[in-house]
Design a protein that fits this description.
By secondary structure, the protein is an alpha/beta fold. It has three helices and eight strands; from the N terminus they run βαβββαβαβββ.
Length: 131
């Protein structure tokens, strides 16, 4: 049997602001943007070269969902963006104004730094040692 995670939902305040952040600042690809109703869209983004998993940008629909924006995991690192060139991506992200909350460090598993997305969700930017 073969399974994979195709998408996961990331709760956002606004579709267009989230699309702009992920495609302009993080240089992700916009995979799909389909209008489903007056208030709902199916929006998928993914890192360049990614073929397995995409992020579904899901606009908060009620107060409970709005309360989760930016803190879907209780303040811990939520997402892990692997790269084949840490310093290239780190320098580009800093130039784009991405907020790093933990500076780069060499760990036994690779080079890593923690950044925030536009809502405050924490991500690891990671170049593994054993690619």
């Amino acid at each position: 049997m073969k399974q994979k995670i195709a998408y996961f939902a990331l709760v956002v305040k606004d579709y267009d602001a989230a699309i702009a952040f992920y495609t302009k600042k993080l240089n992700f690809d916009l995979i799909e943007d389909t209008v489903l109703s007056d208030t709902k869209r199916w929006v998928l983004v993914a890192p360049k070269g990614s073929t397995e998993t995409s992020i579904l940008l899901a606009k908060a629909a009620d107060d409970e969902q709005k309360n989760r924006i930016g803190n879907q995991t209780g303040g811990r690192v939520f997402l892990f963006l692997y790269t084949d060139n840490f310093w290239r991506d780190y320098i580009n992200m800093v130039a784009e104004g991405i907020n790093f909350v933990r500076e780069p460090i060499e760990e036994i598993y690779g080079t890593v730094a923690v950044f925030e997305d536009l809502y405050g969700n924490q991500w690891d930017l990671l170049e593994p040692k054993n690619k």
